[in-house]
């Protein structure tokens, strides 16, 4: 089978598997929510609410029906692209909840990825190109420490130092209360303020974004550093790199044209899936920094046992991860000629 034919077969198979992956995510989320201890009616209305009010709420949420009926009804809603309505937000559609909170998550994730890639790839490049030196040891320590540290703890320490003690950055929220937020175009405050040519809003948005963005990016950078360092060291020890050295090609050209380029192939996979996971809600970061994103809204919905909102957000997150996984697999298959199917 030719490579083009095998590639087409692989893409077709991956596209067919994607709905199955999404169905599994939907099913697992549905069952886990029903298996969680506690009564959603008690969580929403409170333990002292009249039993008649609780029963009416259970009826409204469909919780009195058999489990299989609830499951089939929910699948039918999803097939109509209906994620339901939030119980705790006065009947607000879950799609409206997502459109309201998701831009903040996108902005945080996007700029955190920029920080993570710049730090991780840069440090991995230096440490991988200088094996068995202090740079290599430093790179390994950086990768291990940033990967192992708990995000919520680092977030609190960063806030304590840079927000409370030094007063360099604000605590919580996304924009000051007394200042008008940028006119919504994309929902990303930095881009919207640039499009509106309002530089006060632009620098204010950067100021509020910097601390949570840098904290999340710093801890993610260890993943990229380790992958780049390991793959770069393996690539620089390969036969074709030794042959390039024997032909007298400058070391700097070997490093970037041969070593670094090939070491980036596995990074693309991790980069795409990491970004998808971030878009799927950097819950700990958003909760720690009181960032008004979709991850924070998911945390609130779980605390309030708001079934429709939790299910809708998780399905939305699952869709993002499935699509990102599909895209990354296809991109890797197209750029790496060594892959055969």
- Order of helices and strands, N to C? HHHHHHHHHHHHHHH
Rg over CA atoms: 24 Å
CATH class membership of the largest domain: Mainly Alpha
The beta-strand count equals 0
Largest sheet: none
Structural classification: mainly alpha
Mean pLDDT: 81
Helical fraction: over 70%
Proportion of residues in extended strands: under 5%
Overall outline = globular
| Number of H- or I-type helical stretches | 15
Low-confidence stretches: none
Tell me the CATH superfamily of the largest domain. Answer: MetI-like
The quaternary state of the protein chains shown equals single chain
**Alpha-carbon distance between the two ends:** 9 Å
Number of domains: 2
**CATH architectural group of the largest domain:** Orthogonal Bundle
Structural descriptors:
single chain, 341 residues, MetI-like fold, mainly alpha, globular, 75% helix
Give the SSE map.
Elements: H1 3-35, H2 40-45, H3 51-61, H4 67-79, H5 94-129, H6 134-148, H7 151-165, H8 189-195, H9 199-236, H10 239-246, H11 251-263, H12 265-279, H13 283-288, H14 294-303, H15 307-335
What does this molecule look like?
The structure is a single chain. The protein is mostly helical. It folds into 2 domains: 3-79, no CATH class; 98-335, MetI-like (MetI-like fold), CATH 1.10.3720.10. Helices cover 75% and strands 0% of the residues. The chain contains 15 helices and no strands. α5 runs parallel beside α15, α9 crosses α11 and α9 packs antiparallel against α12. The longest helix has 38 residues, at 199-236. The model has no long low-confidence stretch (mean pLDDT 81).
